[in-house]
Fold:
Amino acid sequence: MSRRLGLLAAVVIAFAGAVPVVAHDPDPTFGELYAQNKVLQYRWSASGTPPYDMKVAIHAARDDANASRKAKAPTFDFDTGATNVIYYGTDVPCGVNGLACFQRDPPGWFGVWFRENGHRFDWGTLRWCELSGAPDGCYDAENIALDELGHVLGLDHHDNFADDSDYRDAVVQTYSRTKPRSGYNAHVFGRCDVAALQQQYDVLAFTTLYSTCLDIPTVARLTASSTSVTAGAMVTFTATLTSAGTGRLSNNPVTGRTLVLQQRTSSGWSDVLTMSPTTAAGTYTASLTIRSSQDYRALFRKPANEGLRSDFSGAVSISVTAACTSLCPQSAPAPGQ
Amino acid sequence: MEPMRWIRGMVPLTAAALLGAGVMTRPPVLVAADPPWQPPPCVDSGPPGTGGGAAWYRLDGILDAAGRLSGSRLSTGLAGGPTRHLALGAESFATGPVDGIVLVGTDDGRRSRLSLVDAARGCSTALPDEPTVVRSAILAPDGTALVEHRVDRVTRADLGVWRVELPGGRGTRIVAGVPDDDGYGPTFSTELRWTPDGRLAVTSCGERACRTRLVEQRSGRTVQVGPTGPVVGIDAGGGVIARERCGGVPCPIVRVGPGGASQVLVPVAWRAAMAGDRLVFESGRAGLRVLDVKLGVMGIVDGGGLVPVGDGSKAPSGAERGAGEVLLAPEGVVDGSGLRVLGPVGLTPVGIAEVRP
Structure:
């Protein structure tokens, strides 16, 4: 090595720190991110324009990505003047074992490459289902394109269980299944793809369900319109529910869920009523006629369909300060009943 | 390989525009207007090649109207000289050149035919047909033999690597095929290359990862390294320089030593090639860099517009060059003009024709 090289030297060798990834975690991620909800336009490469059925599959994957991201991840759109290019053909930088691949350099550009139908691998001939009459053993181009678009968004390969029983949890896979194996034609991001997108880009809206591949703490809080009332008075309870994850998923209002108002009993807590969502994000309300001093709290139970943890608020004590001067509402039957 | 280079000093948007407009517009293969070459048989008493430029080749796939691979076209010649085109089948390969010879293989569905195309003399020597499928092959550095990777014609099972003495000797299996292994998945590609210390490196890449067997031909002693991503090269210390297992690029390049220890050499790399202990890689906006993997020092290559061209038996193009020299081509396209090499020392590429005897 020349002295000149030595002067320019920059030692970059470092021990590889392989970070173990637990299966059923969100997909790993890498590289820089695009801006939230950015529209990433693409066009066909002039030197490698896909055949018609491949174009249809790629456009379908675009729609799949846009519809199933459930996050403020960028969307994709076709534009003939786009900087980002999608190529189909024989001249691909996909390594020797790739069906398709991507290159990305946010926020500048990305490229996606698809190998040609009929490419010879050691195991045999590559067949895209959409271009070959969909025989067994073919690869679903729409599924593979969705995988590549996931990479463009910053997703790395999902880390599967050893037996691949969780294959359907992600489309962004180290390898892709062929027809007719389960998941070969998945056309929506898997729950662990979505989880990573939500972590990286935030949930699409406060009402968007958190991926079940996540386990995000929540914080429930409860206030009352008054904590000292006469018996029979109406008290309005207001609860808020926020996410308590990290990064993008911290302190988000969580809207459109089910919060329950509970009161303390001799044996613990019991549900009183379900609180109603208000127009304010992450806010729920309930009104209750108070007959006696009591402790109340708001409870958010972990839903089966999303990755949020349970939480309950601190207790709010409502004190009844004076007895009713007449029959207390609801404490005795009304005349005639 | 689709060029994707960054031009140092350009703003990203401009570079991106260039990338989008320029590097992805490599002209398609024109077949109809360019009749294929039918090389005559080489005869021992024939005249030596003329011109003195380094031999080169490039293999392009040809697609039919439906986008299906229908054949291949080999372009070859000497640097600075005319280009010849050879029509081949869809399952074809080319490697080398070694002493001006490009090793070409093509399979017609019934047999594989290998030939030695002499780029300098403009002739070809056919080798005996092989009933199994020869996926790729490379010439021994001294040109007296070749090693080829075969798969079963029906089952596509890996039949291993075979050594064939030239001209036309019988094959002897020197490396067994890899068995099915869930850790790697079905084998997509098997790549052959010579190591600096004369061993044969056989890299078998499955759908999940690659493993490389380093084989001493005389003793048969084999060291396996992996899993890794696709291999860039083997350094003089027997380390396998490979990609990490990435879905795309940029992707780190690692060195996995004979004992299995792994080091990240380059955390962000685009296209890369290596020779000896020098790894040349695209570093995004930072341009072309060279890293001495032994010393751990890096330099900036004065190579505007040049792209490193990989080697190994699956490389779609190549050019003859000296030991320790990394091939560089404008936009990564090997076509006989503008080829450069980066030698074992220095940071300025030189014209390939300048270094061939």
Notes: Chain A touches chain B through 67 residues (CB under 8 Å). Chain A is about 15% helix and 30% strand. The first strand of chain A starts at residue 14 and ends at 15.
